[in-house]
Amino acid sequence: MRYRWVVTALLVGALAFVAAGCGGDDGGGGAEGSEDVTGDISIMAIWGGEEQESFQAVIDGFEELYPNVNVTYTSGGDNLAPLLSSAVEGGNPPDIAAVGQPGLMAQFAEQGAIQPIDDLRDAIVDNFGESVADVGAVDGTQYGIMFKGANKATIWYNVPAFEEAGVGAPETWDELSEAASTLSAAGITPYSVGVDVGWPMTDLFENIYIRTAGPEMYDQLATHEIPWTDQSVKDALTIMADVVGDSSNLAGGTQGALETDMPGSVAKVFAESPEAAMVIIGDFAPGVVESPIEAETGYNVFTFPSIEDSGPSVVGGGDLFVEFKDSPAADAFLEYLTTADAAQIWAERGGFSSPNKNLDTSVYPDEITQTTAGALAEAEVFRFDMSDLQPSAFGGTPGQGLFKAFTDFVQNPSDIDGLTEQMEAEAAKAFSQ
Prior knowledge:
three-stranded antiparallel beta sheet; disordered N terminus; alpha/beta
């Protein structure tokens, strides 16, 4: 299958990738500028709100080095994938885009829509390692740079809420369920869930699935070697219903969860008067809201718990910058993104994990971020976000595929057989195209 290369590259390179996330020396991390490079660049990515402000700071750093280049950024939000596909079909894509789906990058490469950046291969390898470089390659040709990574095996909690209920950070799923019950008994809603367009629910499923089915079956499901009607999927959904299947577990109930976006779900926990005690979301949580409480004393994080003695594992993601239109200005921006200097600008602001091995983790603003970013290096098992490995119509488009399926699951968690049949029908269609 044409998407198998993505999983192969990611799995073979997992150890090198996660090691890249823990920092290193400063060699090769410097950024150099030039007044000779001129032009305008348009960039699109998913980031809005606080993340957009942080990326704008990265852009500002580039424009200081290249004062004769003007960069314009547009947030595509959760509709980025279809927006880019439409722009490609219409012949007017941005100069550069950051895509969070390696499968989508592969599609663009197959269409000839993105430009090879083989001349940056050495710089990418020097700063990120060969395996991270390979994530941005298709059939041996370099197309992408993974600038931003994410550890999605994290659960954030309101520290005073935990203290009030007398619970600690759980290490197993049974302990998590017990903590949720104790919180409820203390009058504290356990979970804040932001269904958003569906992708936060895919992350929850993937973390459960890798711990119940194991990494090998995770790989098989990612490449559609086993169907979505497999019993392992149904077992994971049954466990997932422990969180989303009881409306009283959720801030605002089921309807409130369906109407809440991802930043809103974080805000309900990162508050002086929280609406819920926990939010299951990636390590980028602190960067998506302006919180009135402080890290560690107000909010903290624990690793997604083991299920039935499963070993430590991390489901993660990343954003790959690709070039639709070749120009000296666009080339300069991509080269800038390979440097530790560029990564440090966002890292210092928080809500960011860099796979750049030359970035010293001490630049992260607090111990929590240092821990979540460093956890990528400590993982015994690492897998890329499964929905991002799918054809974009199935894994990354609002209103259809997995996004819709998991939204439907929150609305009706009892119809697991119907849901998995729906998933399998759409997966079979997407992988046959």
